[in-house]
Design goal:
InterPro entries: C-typ_cyt_methanol_metab-rel, Cyt_c-like_dom, Cyt_c-like_dom_sf. By secondary structure, the protein is mainly alpha-helical. It has 8 helices and 5 strands; from the N terminus they run αβββααααββααα. α2 crosses α7. The longest helix has 20 residues.
Amino acid sequence: MTKKFSLLSASVMAVAAILASAPIGAEEVKPDVAVEYVEGGRAFTKDDIPTYFIAEDGTVDWPVFSGFRRYHAECHVCHGPDGEGSTYAPALKESALAMDYYDFIEVIASGRQKVGASENSVMPAFGTNKNVMCFVDDIYVYLKARGMDAIARGRPAKKVDKPDELRAEEEECMSG
């Protein structure tokens, strides 16, 4: 009887501790996506992390539009359209919010394998795929914008023209 009571008490106390550590009514912490500066046709946060810029009329910057295109060319087969996820792979729009930028890039470049009793998933490495790596920041900002609900599902209706700096960056990466 004492053993049962001890296990029950420990379980109740553990749940109480978890509940006590989470403020009631607290909202989920959203990542910092505020544009601090624009350089070379890309927007960045105060921490020098690529971010997105969407005008009040819904016009997206070129990296978001490019990210939409590249995501749907390379990623959606496993991860579902618009970063929503699938029965096969997780929603990357959520990963872009939950993961550190550098970890996100590392997983794309090096891949990831999780094998266990309840999980068996493999993300292939794309580090040598120029169609992914030359546009990885674009894919990231597109997914970040989707995760923040800054853009709706589907092809963005309005985009800025491709900046010359990004055209040159793409040509250099794809030819190198």
